[in-house]
Specification:
two-stranded antiparallel sheet; alpha+beta; about 55% helix; Macrolide_Exporter_MacB; 13 strands; single chain; 2 domains; about 375 residues
């Protein structure tokens, strides 16, 4: 008990030195907490924005089946059914998936490829509920979505390739459809295709009651992997196909944000560590004669080292509390002042534990060398020190 009291007494004996140490470390901790809150909030907000509406994953049949043939029409824009894509799923599975806890929305889609007469260019046609196009990440750039069975929308690439726009007609398997909108997904293949109602494509391909895939939106995007496992366990005939390209781009962007914030925090931590090291070395130098006296009355090297390390760790713990308060307060102030709009601060136990862990590491590393140096002082030489 007396040993702990001695450590506390040493800390507050030189208040200016202790204040500088507290200030240096608390700035580093405040940087970790503040930037962590903002970057985690930015990551969550960006992920929410990027995945708003779009499906988190797509379910397809665990087994694969072949497609069916068709025939084309006479004009240049007429397309003939070429083949169905992938295996088929009973359409009732869509309702089954919707009932699973954690599923926010789901829609069945039928996909088939067609060839434009004369050019032999394959065009993808996707049948899907027109009110759930957002799950396919399709954005209408001109016109509107289809509302009847004889209406379609075409992609921006298909519009240019076929020289078609809103108001024109398109013949698919001897059926005429009116183009009511042009969409864009950012995917070259999908933008070269056509969206129509599910029932229309099912009629054309003689696939009534079946779909090629089920697009699923999770209540919590970050928990989509667990949701996939739950669905696949309940319905082994379904398997997941994530859009790895888009997920990869999004993850890379989010990782860049987190890495940048962590790099800035690390710089602040390094500066704080140097401050701790300098202040503790200065403390040992100033107390050389005192340490010499302690060793001359029987203090062991281990006891001297423990005292210096203890002072460093206690200063760091106090600084971490101050740093947490400063970091949270500063970011809350920025948020209230609307200087960081559209970013919802992300408080997490992991962030605070990381900040405290870094602070303790700083205290130990910053005090280790000064403690070792103090423990190696010779009592005779220390007492001669001026």
């Amino acid at each position: 008990m007396k040993f702990i009291n001695l450590i506390l007494k040493n800390i507050f004996r030189n208040k200016s030195r202790t204040f500088l140490a507290l200030l240096g470390i608390s700035i580093g901790i405040a940087a970790i907490v503040g930037l962590g809150l903002v970057s985690d909030g930015l990551t969550a907000s960006t992920e929410k924005t990027l995945t708003a509406g779009a499906a988190d994953f797509t379910l397809t049949s665990a087994s694969s089946t072949g497609g069916s043939g068709g025939q084309g029409g006479p004009d240049s824009a007429m397309m003939s059914q070429n083949s169905s894509s992938g295996g088929t799923i009973n359409q009732t599975r869509v309702e089954d998936v919707l009932k699973i806890t954690g599923v926010e929305d789901a829609v069945g889609a039928l996909q088939s490829s067609f060839t434009i007469n004369g050019s032999q260019m394959p065009v993808n046609a996707i049948g899907i509920d027109g009110s759930k196009l957002s799950l396919a990440d399709a954005v209408i750039t001109n016109g509107s979505t289809y509302s009847t069975g004889n209406e379609v929308i075409i992609g921006t690439t298909a519009s240019k390739t076929m020289n078609k726009t809103v108001g024109d007609t398109l013949s698919i398997s001897n059926q005429t459809f009116k183009i009511v909108g042009i969409y864009e997904t950012g995917n070259f293949m999908e933008d070269g295709g056509v969206f129509m109602s599910l029932s229309s494509l099912q009629n054309i391909t003689n696939s009534t009651g079946t779909v090629s895939s089920i697009m699923v939106k999770a209540n919590n995007t970050q928990d989509s992997d667990n949701l996939i496992n739950k669905i696949e366990a309940a319905y082994p005939d379904l398997s997941n196909t994530k859009s790895m390209a888009s997920m990869g781009r999004m993850n890379n962007g989010l990782e860049t944000i987190s890495t940048g914030a962590w790099a800035i925090s690390l710089l602040a931590v390094l500066i704080s560590g140097v401050i701790v090291l300098i202040i503790m070395i200065k403390s040992v130098v100033e107390r050389t004669r005192e340490i010499g006296v302690l060793k001359s009355v029987g203090w062991t090297n281990k006891r001297v080292m423990t005292m210096i390390l203890g002072e460093s760790v206690i200063i760091t713990v106090m600084a971490s509390i101050v740093g947490l308060i400063i970091g949270v307060g500063a970011v809350e102030l920025l948020s209230i002042s609307n200087l960081i709009p559209n970013i919802q601060l992300a408080f997490s136990a992991e962030l605070f534990l990381k900040a405290i862990g870094v602070a303790l590491l700083l205290g130990i590393l910053g005090g280790l060398y000064p403690a070792y140096r103090a423990s190696k002082l010779s009592p005779t030489e220390a007492l001669r020190y001026e």
